[in-house]
Write a structure and sequence with these properties.
Organism (chains A, B): Candidatus Lucifugimonas marina
CATH architecture of the largest domain in chain A: Orthogonal Bundle
Oligomer: homodimer
Strand order of the largest sheet of chain A: 1-2
Distance between the termini of chain A: 51 Å
Number of helices of chain A: 6
GO molecular function (chains A, B): DNA-binding transcription factor activity
Largest interface: A-B, 52 and 52 residues
Number of domains of chain A: 2
Pfam families (chains A, B): HTH_20
Strand content of chain A: under 5%
Largest sheet of chain A: 2 strands, antiparallel
Helix content of chain A: 40-55%
Low-confidence stretches of chain A: 115-123
Structural class of chain A: mainly alpha
Protein name (chains A, B): Metalloregulator ArsR/SmtB family transcription factor
CATH superfamily of the largest domain in chain A: Winged helix-like DNA-binding domain superfamily/Winged helix DNA-binding domain
InterPro entries (chains A, B): ArsR-like_HTH (IPR011991), HTH_ArsR_DNA-bd_dom (IPR001845), WH-like_DNA-bd_sf (IPR036388), WH_DNA-bd_sf (IPR036390)
Mean pLDDT of chain A: 84
Chain lengths: 123, 123
DNA sequence: CGGTTATATAACTATATAGTTACATGCATG
DNA sequence: CATGCATGTAACTATATAGTTATATAACCG
């Protein structure tokens, strides 16, 4: 279980329930009961999901009477977004083709690694 | 273990070793041995990491003689990027303040959920 | 063919995760 | 101060993950 911030953030986001919780919180703070309401799951289960989100810094716990309202803190997502930018060119069409062009320039020893283009049979 | 694409992608990215592998592959395809070289880890361990990346669709396995070169496929990251966009406003300063402004407009029952601002004591 | 190289798989261990039920704590209020 | 609501924690189960060593497969090369 890696403990660096980026890994914790990715791990926290790797669950649909937790992503739904974040979506709920993106429109405002909510109590634990309110958060739990849409889910077919016991409160302790939700409580655990919230703890994961808190440890990743994606959610902040407040205090109001007997409530412990949770609030979204999207800041860690910034790190994810920045990390992703290193790869944007790889999934954007225009540059994908440019990448393919470069790859084709240097007939690499691994030019068959999942390429869609068929390799010429040796004559 | 959630099986939806987004969860698999996030989970695959939640490990520094796997992210390093992707970084390596971002500069071109590589054999498994080449991928494993920088790591203080046995080959089967790397092999397992590669399988996780493949199942998430982030890596494609090729075939060349006795090599099974891996190639980056960043396409699933597009989904991550798009999902993240829903939250960008929350981490960008300008809109964070706008959000705080809106929150302050409607004195919410949960307005103390981790807010930095002190609530007025009831007179 | 037989050895070497590259990679994959099996079997095992340790730890983490996601859920459960049962119980404990804390605060507000009649 | 006793009761009830909101939440948290403990203890337990089942499954998944990350690593190991040992073994298997597969292709090339002399």
């Amino acid at each position: 279980m890696p403990t660096d911030q980026l890994s914790k953030t990715f791990a926290a986001l790797a669950d649909p329930t937790r992503r739904e919780i974040l979506a709920r919180l993106s429109s405002g703070a909510a109590s634990v009961s309110e958060i739990a309401e849409p889910f077919d799951m016991t409160m302790p289960a939700i409580s655990k999901h919230l703890k994961v989100l808190e440890k990743a810094g994606l959610v902040i716990r407040g205090k109001a009477a007997q409530w412990r309202p949770r609030k979204l803190n999207a800041e860690p997502m910034k790190g994810v977004s920045e990390w992703l930018e290193n790869y944007r060119q790889h999934w954007e069409d225009r540059l994908d083709r440019f990448d393919a062009f470069l790859t084709d320039l240097q007939p690499d020893k691994y030019d068959d690694a999942g390429s869609t283009k068929k390799k010429e049979a040796k004559p």
